[in-house]
Amino acid sequence: xxxxxxxxxxxPPYLHIAGLDEAGRGALAGPxxxxxxxxxxxxPDLLKILQGINDSxxxxxxxxxxLFVRVTDCALAYGIGSVAATVIDEIGIILATKQAMMxxxxxxxxxxxxLLIDGRIRLPNTSLPQQSxxxxxxxxxxxAAASILAKVTRDREMIALADVYPQYGFAQHKGYGTEAxxxxxxxxxxSPIHRHTFAPMRQTLL
Length: 206
Fold this sequence. Notes:
With 206 residues, the chain is an alpha/beta fold.
């Protein structure tokens, strides 16, 4: 289960260590959403309070919603950034993911002084020291918490968009390439919130 080992390894001298993660990078529709979370250091019982926090993909939707509240209640700071499908089509998913992370970082108060980032991503437009951690959302509590904030925020948006585009079933698959979603794209064509540069849409639009 995630713990504070990565955070402890760099603190001190760093006090405001932000974990960052994204949701929706592999989806065919909707935004890519990122979150940044800083937990207070040296808070008694914090590990106990955060018990159950894990990589968002390992949790049920109801548990993620409950943990979202717990994280936002006890975080020292958190931020959430989202980049739309139209921008993803313009600049690509990697740059869009980094842009969403920078948006999340910009919302932190106090500001981060060290970054722990899930996966292989590194943010070039910041002078902050940073560490990329493969499967970081299963190791660092800060990254795991960020994964929950990003996933819940994006899921809520996709559920809302399901009312605007009911034929695609966004409330069920959240824009990922399920069999039902692929069938809907084939029948109705891509919507304005689909990523038109992604393979299924490129083929449909030819």
